[in-house]
Every structure is written in structure tokens, then in C-alpha cells.
Design a protein that fits this description.
- The chain has two domains: 158 residues, Butyryl-CoA Dehydrogenase, subunit A, domain 3, CATH 1.20.140; 132 residues, Nuclear Transport Factor 2, Chain: A, CATH 3.10.450.
- The protein has eleven helices and six strands.
- By secondary structure, it is of the alpha+beta class.
- Helix content is 52%, strand content 15%.
- α1 runs antiparallel to α2, α8 packs antiparallel against α9 and α9 crosses α10.
- The protein is globular.
- The model has no long low-confidence stretch (mean pLDDT 91).
Length: 301
């Protein structure tokens, strides 16, 4: 007889890993995992040969349904949409730990937004988790030939947006340390040297926190913008901490009381920082601890 209480702890990392990659939302992924466990419990799966596969199927189907609803909401989202950040490995909530490879990076999850819910499910199950097509067929209820076609189409779309080469972990860490030093010192020239000429800066305030409404491009423009932000931040007593988020170096911005204001991840390629994704929407930061009120903070400034 299956001990579902024990299975909960064993299956949760797998189920959360699927749900988070499907949805790009910690809160929605938690809801999917919780609902999946309830359904597994109600179905009393004593006759199930492979509980991992069964849990993956239930989780993926729920995530597909959730993503269909989420896509409608995201069409009305104020400004650019970015996934909710997950920290790791040392600072992560154990319930949120996933294998922090490229497939949980902010840039990669943004690419997955271009896929339909079923395409995303097939891609995640095949490319990330290495499922056989026969197993994917059972999950998404499509023929094996159809699943192969869906995967090829999805992989082509994702590959078109991926960088051809990617910086090593050591290079990313070096660039992040130099970036933090340059930002902290207000070193405009230093920042420009670290940023790719076509660097992209994206801010997600979701209408709940001040953020740029369109991506900003170009080393000069982004460097000047960041130096200006830091000057204002110093006046308001904010601090920066270099951590890891979504498998990439990231800066946490905190107010004078230590409450979280934003999480900015960095992507690098060819010795330069090519993308900065800054999540300021407080609704996307609550799972990381106390969140500050940026609107009130700026009002005091």
C-alpha cells in the first residue's frame, strides 16, 4: 500500500519542477502541486505501477489548464511579464528547489511563453525531463507522431531565441561581481564595458511598482539608467546583495529595513552581460520574504 504522506515529500520536487517550468510562477506552481496531491489522494492509486509517472501526468495536465487561464491574464498584464524568481541553492525554500540549469533561467522561461500550453508541456517533458514519447503521449493525450511534431516545432521556436554560445558559470560570476562593483561605485564607463552593445534591460512592475514599460536596449542607455537608479537608491538607503536566482547571478535590492524591493537576474554571453531582468512586482516577490513598498519609498524620497 502506498504511503501518500511519504510520497508527498518524495514527489514534491519533481511536481514543482514541472509546474514551475510550465507556469513561470511559484504561487501558481504551488497551487498546482497541492491540487495534484489532492487528486492523487482521492484516486487512491494503489494499483499504480509508477507513482512518479502518475504524479507527473496529473501535475502536467493541471499545469496545462492553469496556463491556459494564465495566458489570458498575461495578455492584460501591465508592462513586460517576467517569471517569479526562485533563489538558490543556499537561500532557497526547500519546497521550491529545482535543478537550476538553463531551463529555469529567466530568459529561457520567457522564451517558453511563446509556446502553447501543450507545446510547452511536450517540450518540458521531452527536453528537460527526458521523457520518452510514449510516456508523453499518455500525459497530453496526443498520438506519438503528433507529439514528435509538436516537440520539433517547439524546439525550433525556442532555439531561435537562444544564444548560440553561453558564458560559463565562472565567467558569469566574474561579470556579476564586476557589475555589482561598477553599479555600487557609479562607474558609468565600467558598466558600459561590462554590457553588450545590444544589452536588453527588462523591468516587471506589473502596474504594482514603478518600472519601465518597454525593454531598454543599448549599453550606453542601460548603464546610464542603472547609475541613475543607484544614485537614487543610495539616497533612500537601499542595499544590494549578490545571490543566485534561477540559476544565474542576481542582485537583490532591499530597503533600509531589509525588505525586498526587486530581484534582477543577469545573462551573459561572449564575455559581456547581454540581458538584465528585473522583477519589482511585489506580488511576485512575497514567497521570498518580507517585501518593501517601493511606491512609498520613492514618495519619501
Amino acid at each position: 500500500m502506498i504511503d501518500l504522506s511519504q510520497a508527498h515529500d518524495e514527489l514534491r520536487p519533481l511536481m514543482f519542477s514541472i509546474a514551475y517550468r510550465m507556469l513561470g510562477s511559484v504561487v501558481e506552481a504551488e497551487d498546482v502541486v497541492q491540487e495534484a496531491f489532492l487528486r492523487i489522494h482521492r484516486s487512491s492509486p494503489e494499483g499504480v505501477d509508477n507513482l512518479d509517472a502518475y504524479a507527473s501526468t496529473v501535475t502536467t495536465r493541471l499545469a496545462i489548464d492553469t496556463l491556459r487561464s494564465a495566458r489570458v491574464r498575461r495578455e492584460r498584464y501591465v508592462g513586460p511579464w517576467l517569471p517569479e524568481p526562485i533563489l538558490g541553492p543556499d537561500d532557497a525554500d526547500p519546497a521550491h528547489r529545482v535543478e537550476t540549469d538553463e531551463t529555469v533561467s529567466t530568459a529561457f522561461l520567457v522564451l517558453l511563453e511563446a509556446l502553447s500550453p501543450v507545446e510547452r508541456a511536450v517540450f518540458v517533458l521531452r527536453e528537460v525531463l527526458g521523457y520518452e514519447y510514449a510516456d508523453i503521449t499518455a500525459v497530453v493525450e496526443k498520438s506519438e507522431a503528433n507529439c514528435r511534431q509538436i516537440f520539433v516545432r517547439a524546439k525550433k521556436r525556442v532555439s531561435e531565441g537562444r544564444p548560440r554560445f553561453e558564458a560559463s558559470r565562472e565567467e558569469r560570476d566574474r561579470l556579476a561581481s564586476e557589475f555589482l562593483a561598477a553599479v555600487s561605485d557609479g562607474d558609468l564607463a565600467g558598466l558600459e564595458r561590462l554590457l553588450a552593445e545590444d544589452v536588453v534591460f527588462v523591468g516587471d512592475g506589473g502596474g504594482r511598482a514603478p518600472a519601465i514599460q518597454k525593454p531598454m536596449t543599448g549599453a550606453v542607455a542601460v548603464a546610464r539608467f542603472l547609475v541613475g537608479l543607484m544614485r537614487r537608491g543610495e539616497q533612500l538607503g537601499v542595499s544590494l546583495d549578490l545571490v543566485e536566482a534561477n540559476g544565474r547571478p542576481a542582485l537583490l535590492t532591499r530597503d533600509a529595513d531589509g525588505a525586498l524591493i526587486s530581484v534582477m537576474t543577469m545573462d551573459a554571453n561572449a564575455g559581456r552581460i547581454v540581458a538584465l531582468h528585473n522583477v519589482l512586482n511585489p506580488d511576485k516577490l512575497g514567497h521570498l520574504g518580507p517585501v518593501g513598498d517601493l511606491n512609498a519609498l520613492l514618495g519619501r524620497g
